[in-house]
Amino acid sequence: MTxxxxxxxxxxxxxxxxxxxxxxxxPSPLNTFMVVWxxxxxxxxxxxxxxxxxxxxxxxxxxxxxxxxxLIVVVAFLVNDVVKSLFHEVRPCQALSVVPxxxxxxxxxxxxxxNHVAIAAAATAALWLVDxxxxxxxxxxxxxxxxxxVWVGAHYPHDVLAGLLVGAVVGAALECIVLGVxxxxxxxxxxxxxxxxx
Length: 198
Description:
Elements: H1 3-24, H2 28-40, H3 42-59, H4 64-87, H5 92-95, H6 115-130, H7 132-151, H8 157-188, H9 193-196
Keywords: Cell membrane, Hydrolase, Membrane, Transmembrane, Transmembrane helix
Pfam families: PAP2
GO molecular function: hydrolase activity
């Protein structure tokens, strides 16, 4: 753990502990929902990415921006994982005396930044530039993923904020590049259906 993450963890300890204590007095159905959502919520983003591509294809819009979203998400995950390997922040459920809703990840499965949130944020940012209707669904889902990661005990609040930042920046930046490529192709190529769809 670096001095920066150690400082952030110190300030987040009390907030994380407060959330952990709150879960002890929370109705069981809500806790169960949070556990299920944190495990399976990313599946919704896969559906939204496929849906956005199908909507573009049906409407005759360029398909490359939608097809690129899953690849952008993979890149965001890899970037976030590199950052995670640089900081080596121990999970709060290992460092603090709390009982998380989920079993604590193994030692060496670092906490900062959150991969789950980075993936969700990258998908949301990219979809925002491709299909606002799909992004309108992705945004609250992404925020709920972020909350759930702290709620189940897997992350400090600053972990999810950092994951959100990494994912959003990578997702938006790469999707802007893809959109720029599509615009340049459309500006410089004959108006043939095959060209416009790519």
